[in-house]
Amino acid sequence: MTDHRPTPGPQPSHDSPSEDIITGRQLWNFVLRNRWLMIGFTVLGLGAAFYVNRRTVPVYQATATLRIADEGRGDMGIFDPVLPMGMSRQVETEMEILRSRSIREQVVRNLGLQLRLTSPRGLARDSVAGDLFIEPWAPVATYRLDRTPDGSFTVVNVEDEVELGSYRPGQRVALDGGSFELKEMDPELARITFRMTGFDQAVRALQGGLSVTRPQRDVDVVSITYRSPDPRLVFQVPNAVANTFINQRQEIRKTEARSTVTFLEEQVDTVSLQLFEAEANMQAFREGEQVVSLEAQASAQVTRLVQMQAERNSIDAERSALQGLLTEIQREEAFLQPNEPSPYRRLIAFPSLLGSAATSELLRSLNQADNARSELLQRQTMENPDVQNLTRRIRELEEQLRSIATTYLEGLGRQVNSLDESLGRFGAELERIPGREVQFARLERQTRTLEELFNLLQTRLKEAEIVEAVEDAAVRTVDPAIFVARPVSPRRMRNLAMGLLLGLSLGGGLAVLREQLDDAVHTEEHLSRASGGTPVLGWIPEFSSNGLGKLKNGKRGAAGGLTVVHDPSSPISEAYRTLRTNFTFVRPDRPPKTLMITSALPGDGKSTTAANLAAALATQGKSVILIDADMRKGVLHKYVGFPSHSPGLSDVLAKGEGLNEAVHAFPDVAPGFHFLPKGSVPPNPAELLGSGRMKTLLERLSERFNHVILDSPPLVVVTDAQVLAALVDGVVVVARANETPKGAVTHAMVQLDRVRASVLGTVLNGINAERDGRYDGSYRVYKQYEKYYS
Question: What is the mean pLDDT of residues 410-417?
Answer without folding.
Answer: 80
